[in-house]
């Protein structure tokens, strides 16, 4: 059971990482695009407006795509002009986005080449990400992009259960705060269970988990390396399912065994019955009874050949006996 659940968790984790990496790469491409990097952040686009920012955004996140609908808002803070370009509706604005004390700025500096996932914002009920935009030659900071997405972004990967009846599935950050869950009312809460092992049994519940750093092959997992995917299974219901499967297995085994015995008996009768009939026929011959041919009721070739041989022999004996009697009469 542990291995089966573990495989589901592994598949879900790998799917989540692939989804996140593809998502990250598009935001990085957006930040490096001519409109954002040169046009807005370096000031080469005269009279740059939020519409220019929106059009650049739509090039990478078209309305027809699913990811567009998960984006809550995008803020682009430009250091040189101190302007804010915003897509979507958001009630929060950073007062000093490039301050060394600013948590968003510090998170972006932790890995300036990549998109950095900050975590869950309980006020807006969103997941937040940041991307630092800087001059690749002088390394001067040009802008800061703050991205907010719905936690439902991860739900599309919470589907591969292979018929397993689970209570819940979680995506946890490094502090065990729930970033995504099958039960939406739990998002933002902390899972009060110490998941130091990949499998834990506690109060009748089994937790199977994997963190994102334990991969079968090496690849960058960025700011979400300490995230953890968890399946929660009720121990009693799991054992009930196991008992059901076991009962079904026993029933099928007994049925197959019964069919096997009946098949053997049928084949046995198909062989022994013709042999016994031939034996009985020879007894009739001993008593000069030649009028008892054996009917063919077998589908096996060998007994059928014996019966055919016996019937031919019986017919020749009848003819030979008749000839003898006729000669005597003459």
Can you offer a commentary on this structure?
Helix content is about 45%, strand content about 20%. About 25% of the residues are buried. It is α+β, with helices and mostly antiparallel strands. Helix 1 (about 1-30) crosses helix 3 and helix 6 runs parallel beside helix 7 (about 300-330). The chain has seven helices and ten strands. It has a five-stranded antiparallel β-sheet with strand order 2-1-5-4-3. It has a five-stranded antiparallel β-sheet with strand order 7-6-10-9-8. Strand 4 and strand 5 form a beta hairpin.
Entry summary:
This protein has 330 residues and is an alpha+beta fold. The protein has helices at residues 2-32, 34-41, 50-60, 66-70, 103-109, 235-286, 301-329, and strands at 71-78, 83-88, 116-121, 126-134, 141-149, 168-172, 178-181, 199-202, 205-211, 228-234. Helix content is 43%, strand content 20%.
Q: How many whole angstroms does the radius of gyration measure?
A: 40 Å
Low-confidence stretches: none
N-to-C span: 92 Å
Shape: elongated
Layout: helices, strands, pairs:
Layout: H1 2-32, H2 34-41, H3 50-60, H4 66-70, E1 71-78, E2 83-88, H5 103-109, E3 116-121, E4 126-134, E5 141-149, E6 168-172, E7 178-181, E8 199-202, E9 205-211, E10 228-234, H6 235-286, H7 301-329
Antiparallel strand pairs: 1-2, 1-5, 3-4, 4-5, 6-7, 6-10, 8-9, 9-10
Helix pairs in contact: 1-3, 6-7
């Amino acid at each position: 059971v542990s291995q089966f659940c573990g495989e589901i968790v592994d598949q879900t984790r790998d799917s989540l990482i692939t989804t996140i990496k593809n998502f990250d790469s598009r935001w990085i491409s957006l930040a490096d695009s001519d409109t954002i990097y040169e046009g807005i952040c370096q000031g080469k686009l005269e009279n740059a407006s939020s519409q220019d920012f929106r059009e650049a955004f739509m090039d990478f996140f078209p309305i027809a795509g699913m990811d567009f609908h998960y984006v809550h808002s995008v803020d682009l803070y430009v250091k040189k002009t101190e302007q804010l370009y915003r897509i979507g509706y958001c009630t929060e604005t950073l007062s000093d986005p490039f301050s060394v004390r600013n948590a968003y700025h510090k998170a972006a500096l932790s890995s300036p080449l990549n998109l950095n996932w900050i975590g869950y914002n309980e006020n807006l009920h969103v997941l937040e990400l940041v991307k630092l935009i800087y001059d690749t030659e002088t390394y001067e900071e040009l802008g800061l992009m703050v991205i907010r997405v719905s936690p439902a972004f991860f739900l599309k990967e919470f589907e591969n259960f292979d018929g397993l009846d689970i209570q819940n599935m979680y995506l946890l950050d490094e502090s065990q705060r729930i970033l995504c869950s099958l039960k939406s009312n739990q998002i933002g809460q902390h899972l009060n269970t110490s998941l130091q092992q990949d499998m834990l049994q506690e109060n009748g519940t089994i937790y199977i988990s994997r963190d994102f750093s334990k991969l079968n092959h090496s690849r960058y997992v960025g700011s979400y390396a300490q995230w953890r995917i968890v399946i929660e299974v009720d121990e009693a219901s799991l054992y009930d399912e196991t008992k059901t499967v076991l009962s079904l297995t026993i029933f099928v085994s007994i049925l197959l065994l019964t069919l096997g015995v009946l098949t053997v008996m049928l084949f046995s009768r198909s062989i022994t019955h013709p042999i016994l009939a031939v034996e009985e026929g020879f007894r009739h011959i001993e008593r000069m009874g030649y009028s008892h041919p054996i009917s063919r009721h077998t589908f096996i070739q060998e007994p059928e050949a014996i019966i055919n041989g016996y019937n031919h022999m019986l017919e020749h004996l009848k003819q030979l006996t008749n000839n003898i009697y006729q000669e005597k009469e003459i």
